[in-house]
Design brief:
10-stranded antiparallel beta sheet, about 40% strand, about 5% helix, globular, mainly beta, 2 domains, single chain, 8-stranded antiparallel beta barrel
Length: about 475
């Protein structure tokens, strides 16, 4: 596989997996589904080749070393966390807020490896690596640096006081992960868990999902319980039995964050608006945006000056790790929600809109592009309001929306490091089909023909305007 320094490769990788990754049942999951959990044999849909690194400090083909990711793991050894309430499950001795301490050290006799992964070919003749998305998007088989480590994990209240071997793994220089499952019999702390509906159920395992970054730790803790097998039953041939109970994560950290689970983009970590990630902060992106002069050119109209000012609110969310399935995106990327005050000299627009601003790195780690959008994920329905209140909500004047059920805006505006501006504002009118606004017809006695499917929303672009650099 072709290699390059991470600083160049990061601009091609995809961005935002959650600080709290989980399965559909809420249980902790291996953050990289195609990479085996700690202790499992390799397999699945990826072929892999391991190459031992000469030392912890030796730079891998990914452009960083095992020592680099070990430093991430120990940069924020202590973190506050929250015990979660789980209906039907009681656990002790801790509850509420707690403190977690994680110390990671190289395992005695352990090794550091560069692991080259590629999708398995579909036939004996082999085949090319599968690309997801356009260009050089990441694949479901990311290369990693793996380090054999020993973990000491303790909670202040004594629930856990564990020491175990694991693998510290990273596919980039900014985020490292450990996933480990411990049998209940191996636990050294005083943690207990029971099932309210069945006192005979016993704790079988605990799963630790640990993520480390320069901005701190994130992760979650899950448990597995098991009911005793009924007398005379034989489930030894089944890998999954009805006696297993997985209630979901019982603790998570950080306790609250503005970053949410986004399978398209990746892992988000909370950050202050003025906190530098790489060589810039999201405040730097806000300052660039607010200093840029803009002009608006609507369909069939002359260009007019557009004043745009963004005021951030709350904390920021920094994306430090690529997604295996997302579109190409520069890393790191820092985003924040806020309010956009928008006014045009022709009095067409005079409003304050909830918006999101995202600042992404250039190839050298400096501030690259800055993007403002109603929804950074491009949702066409996120901005919809009742048509009767569209003008008062958005301060956009001069359009008759009485023929529509709903109306909304689509705004995307990107400012590059060279002050290049590209953007578009679209006002959409929306009609709902009768099947969404009228009661469904009653089914005749004895049944009858099936009800036809309901059509989706009907969007009409009422007005489109281009946004460019102004004077």
């Amino acid at each position: 596989m072709r290699r390059r320094p991470w600083q160049l490769m990061s601009a091609l990788l995809a961005g935002l997996a959650s600080a709290c990754v989980g399965t559909s049942t809420g249980n902790p999951a291996n953050p990289d589904p195609e990479i085996p959990n700690v202790g499992e044999a390799s397999g699945g849909s990826c072929d892999e080749t391991k190459t031992k690194l000469a030392s912890l400090d030796a730079e891998s083909p990914l452009g960083f070393s095992a020592a680099d990711i070990l430093a991430l793991a120990n940069d924020h050894a202590q973190t506050p966390f929250e015990w979660l309430d789980r209906d039907g499950v009681t656990f002790a001795p801790e509850s509420g807020m707690g403190t977690l301490t994680v110390d990671v050290e190289p395992r005695s006799g352990g090794e550091a490896h560069f692991v080259d992964r590629s999708p398995k070919s579909s036939g004996n003749s082999g085949g090319p690596e599968i690309a997801i998305g356009s260009g050089e998007s990441a694949t479901a088989c990311p290369d990693t640096v793996d380090l054999d480590v020993t973990v000491q994990l303790t909670t202040a209240g004594g629930a856990f006081d564990e020491r175990f071997d694991a693998t510290l793994r990273a596919k980039g220089p900014n985020v490292a992960r450990i996933y480990a499952s411990r049998k209940a019999a191996e636990l050294e702390g005083s943690f207990e868990a029971s099932l309210d509906s069945d006192p005979s159920a016993v704790l079988e395992s605990v799963q630790f999902d640990l993520t480390f970054s320069k901005l701190g730790q994130s992760g979650q803790l899950g448990v597995g319980l098991k009911r005793p097998e009924p007398a005379g039953s034989n489930n030894s041939s089944s890998s999954v039995t009805s006696s297993a109970i997985n209630p979901g994560p019982v603790a998570q950290w950080p306790a609250s964050t503005s970053c949410t689970n986004d399978p398209i983009s990746g892992s988000g970590f909370g950050a202050r608006v003025d906190q530098a990630v790489d060589q810039f902060s999201v405040k730097d992106g806000v300052d660039r945006f607010n200093a840029t002069k803009l002009q608006l050119t609507g369909a069939g109209a002359a260009a007019t000056k557009l004043s745009a000012q963004f005021a951030p609110s709350g904390s920021a969310c920094a994306v430090l790790e690529s997604s295996d399935f997302g579109p190409a995106q520069s890393l790191p990327t820092i985003s924040v929600s806020g309010e956009l005050t928008l006014r045009s000299d022709d009095n067409r627009i005079d409003g304050k809109w909830p918006m999101q601003l995202s600042a992404a790195a250039a190839a050298d780690g400096s501030l690259g592009t800055v993007k403002v959008a109603y929804d950074l994920h491009g949702s066409i329905i996120a901005s919809l309001v009742d048509a009767a209140v569209f003008e008062s909500t958005y301060g956009i004047h001069g359009f008759d929306m009485t023929g529509y059920d709903e109306a909304g805006v689509l705004l995307t505006l990107t400012i590059g490091p060279d002050a290049a501006v590209r953007g578009e504002l679209v006002v959409n009118g929306v009609k709902r089909p009768d099947c969404q606004t009228q009661p469904l017809p009653a089914t005749p006695p004895g049944g009858g023909a099936s009800t036809p499917g309901c059509a989706g929303l009907q969007f009409t672009p009422v007005w489109t305007a281009a946004i460019a650099a102004g004077n």
